[in-house]
Amino acid sequence: MYKCSELEQFADRVLEFTTRYNSRNQLSYGPGNLRGKYTKYPSYGDFPETYTLRCYGEWWKFSEATYQKPYMTNDVDPLGTEDFVTVHFNQAVLPTKIYIYETYTLEQSVSCFVDTIRLELNCSKLDHHSCFDAVLLSGRPAPESTFQLKCFEAFGLPQIATVTTICDSNDTYDSSSKRSRKKNYFKKLPYEVIVQIFYFLDLKSLCRCACVSKQWNEIARDSLLYQNISLKKYWYTVDTRALDFLQNRCKNLKKLDLSWCGNDDRNFPRKFYEFFTSTCQNLTHISLGNATYLNGSHLAAFSRCPDLVELRLRNVTISDLEFCHADTLTKLTKLVTLDFYSTNITTNMLLPLLKVNPNLKYLNLDFCDEIENMDDVIEVVAEYNKQIVGWSSWKAKRLSSRGVGLLGHCHCLEDLDLGWGLHVLPPENAIEKIALGCKRLKRLILSGWRPLVDAMLLPLIENCKQLEQLDLLSIKGISKEFVEKTLNELPNLRLLELSFCDSIPVEKIEQWRISFPHIKIQRCSETE
Amino acid sequence: MHSLWLTGRLLSRAIWNGFANISSAADPNVHRKTDPFLVSAVCGFSKERKIQRLIKGQFGDDAWFTARYKSADVLGVADGVGGWRAYGIDPGEFSMHLMKTCERLIKLGRFTPSNPSELLARSYYELLHHKKSILGSSTACVVILNRENSTLYTANIGDSGYMVVRGGRIIHRSEEQQHYFNTPFQLSLPPPGYQADVLSDQPDSAITDNFPVEDGDVILVATDGVFDNLPQNLLVSELTKVQGERCASRLQMVANSIAWMARNLSFDETFVSPFAESAFANGINTIGGKPDDITVILATVAI
C-alpha cells in the first residue's frame, strides 16, 4: 500500500473567481490575497490584506440588476452556491484536510479536486462581509511512479467518484430486460399528463427517468421539458458531450444559464456556438457568467435572438471585442435586463445598445474598467431608458457629480448602487438631485463617498421616504445627529451600513441597535 | 541620571531594531554570487522624547520598509506631514500605510523594477480604495536595485531622499522638491471639505532617476530629519566608513551612529544646521537643529 507523509501547502495561485470587492488591478481586498501564508489571521476584522466578498446576507437579492433569479425553479441548488473562487496548489495531493483562514464572518461549502480547489460560497446566511486570508491544503502528495499511481486508481479518487455526470443517462435504453411483468399504469395516462408530471423534475431526475422504460425515455426527451435550462449547478460536468445531449432536446429553449461551465474544455466554444445557433431562436433569457471563451462571433449569435429580454455576461472578457462592430448587439431591442458585471464592454458598444432598448429596467456596469467615462453612459440612459429601475456601477471610472445628478432624471429608479463612485471628487449637489428626482428609491449604496457630509445627504432623508437599504460605508463626514434623523424619519429602513464611519462612536451604535431593533445597523472596523 | 538611562534605552532600542531588521532584509546566503544585492540596516528615532510604543516600520511620523522580490531589492522611506495633528489626524498613519502597501506590492511582485514612481502611485491609489479612510499626507522616497542590470532606480517626492557614495564622493543625491520653504511636495488624502486648501501632488510628479551602481557603493535613504540636521561632509565621512561593508551588524553600527548624531544635533539649539542655513537663505533668522523624526536606511551594494 502506498504511504506518504502529509504535505501541507498554501495556495500558490488564484485561477478563477466570481466576485470581488475592488477593481481588477488593485491589490486590497482582491482574490490575490489568498495566495501564500495568512497575513492577518488570527486578527479579527475587515482587512485590505484579505480576500473580501462584496455581498452578504439576503439584502442584495433585492437588486435585480445584480441578482439573477433562478431560471429553473424546479432545479435549485440545495447548497445555494452563489459564488466561487478557485485556487491552485503547487503539488497535487490526495486531500485529507482543508483549512480556510478567515478573519471575518464566514460560512461556505467546499468541493475539491486534486491540485485545485474550488470554494463554493453561499453568503446568504452571513451577517456581514466575509474575509479570507489563506487556504491551506493538507494531504498526501500524488505518487510519482506508475505503480503507485495504479494503487491510487484502485482506491478511486473519492471526490471525483461522487460527482455524477449528467451524460450518464445515455440515450440507449436496454430493451432486453424482461423483468417487468407488472402492469404499467403509466401507459394508461395520457402523454400530456406525464409530461406535466415530469415538468416538476430537476435535470438529474429527468435523466434517471430516461433509463426506466422506452416510454419514459421518449417522454423525457420532450422539448417541452427543456425550456428552461440551468447548468450552473453542474459546472464540473458540463462539456461538449453534455451540449450534444441537450441539443436534440432543446427545440424550444427559453431560458439558458450556462454560467461557470465549459472553461476546461477546449472544444467547448465551438460546440457552444453550434448549440446556440441551432437551438436558441426563441431564447428570452441567457446567462453566461465566467464564460472565459466568449468572442465576437458569440455576440453576433446573441443578436440573432430577437426576443431576448435578459442578457447576463458576468465576469466575461470578450476576446476580440475591439474588432466587433459597434452595432453587433443592436438587433436586440426588447432587453429588460443587462448585466455586464466585470466585463470589458466599451462605451462604443454599450451606447448604441442602450439607445435601442427603451424598455430597459436593470443595468449592471460594476467593474467595467473599459468604460472610460461613466457620465456619458448616464447621459444616454437618462435620455433613452426612462424606465430604468435598477442601476449598478460599483467602482465606476470617471463618474462626476454631473453624471450622478443626471440620474435624477430617471424617476422610476428604486435600486441605485454607486459604491466608490465619487470617493475623491466633490459630490456638490448630486445627492440632492437624486433625492428630488428618484422618490421611489428603496436601495441606495454610497460606499466610500468620502467627501459626503451631513448637509449633502439631508435631502435624501426628506424626500426618499421609501428607502429600505442605505449604505454609507467609510463616510467620515456624517454625524450622529444625522444618523439619528435617518433612523427616525425613514419608516421603511431595514439596513443601515455604517462600517468604517469613524465619526460615530460604537456606544451610540449599540444604543441604536436596542432602540431600533427592526433595523440592521452594520458596523465593523479594522481591529488591530 | 535620568537622561543617561534614557540614552541607554534609546541606544539599545536602536540596536534591537537593527537586529530585527537583519533577519528581514539582509540575508546574503540566499543569493547566487553573481547577482548584486543590498545589505541593509535601519535605525531611527521619534522626535518625541517620551518613550512610545514601538511599531516595526515606524519612527514617530516616519515610516520605512525594506523588501525584496526575485530580481529587485527595494528600500523606502516616507515622512508623514505633522501639520495634520491639528485636525485630529495621526500623521503617521498615512506614511505607515503607504510604505506597508509598497511592501505588499513588492512581495506579490506587482511592480516594475525599473519604475519606482509607478510603485508609489499604485500604493497611493490602493490607499484611496481602503475601506478605512486614511487621511493625511506624506513625502516619500523609494529606491529599487534591479539585480539584473545592477542599476538603481529611484523615485522621490518631497524632501526625503537618498545619497549614494563611492570612494568618499557623492555619486548621486536626490533633489528636494519644495513648494516653498519647509513645505515639501507631498502625496495627500485630505479630509472632506479641505480638498481645495491642501497641497496635493500627484504621484507622477515624483522625480525619477536611474544610474548603474558598483560593488561597495553605499546608499543612504533617509527622511529630512537626517538631511536637515547633519552637514553633508559629516554624512559623507560616515558613509565612507562602510564602503564595501558586507557585514550587516557593522553596517548597523554606522546607521545607529548617523541616526544618533542627527538626533543629538536636532535638539542642539546653538548648532548651525543645514536647516538653519536654508532658513537663513530664505530670509528667516534662526539657529539650531530641527527637531524631527529620524529614519536612516543604510545599504551597501554587494556584487
Automatic annotation (TrEMBL), chain A:
Pfam families: F-box-like. SMART domains: FBOX (SM00256). Residues 183-229 form the F-box domain. SUPFAM superfamilies: RNI-like. InterPro entries: F-box_dom, LRR_dom_sf. Coiled coil: none annotated. This is F-box domain-containing protein.
From TrEMBL, chain B:
It comes from the Eukaryota. Its cofactor is Mn(2+); Mg(2+). One of its GO terms (molecular function) is metal ion binding. Pfam families: PP2C_2. Its EC number is 3.1.3.16. SMART domains: PP2C_SIG (SM00331), PP2Cc (SM00332). Keywords: Hydrolase, Magnesium, Manganese, Metal-binding, Protein phosphatase. It catalyses: O-phospho-L-seryl-[protein] + H2O = L-seryl-[protein] + phosphate; O-phospho-L-threonyl-[protein] + H2O = L-threonyl-[protein] + phosphate. The keyword Transport does not apply. Residues 42-301 form the PPM-type phosphatase domain. Belongs to the PP2C family. This is Protein phosphatase.
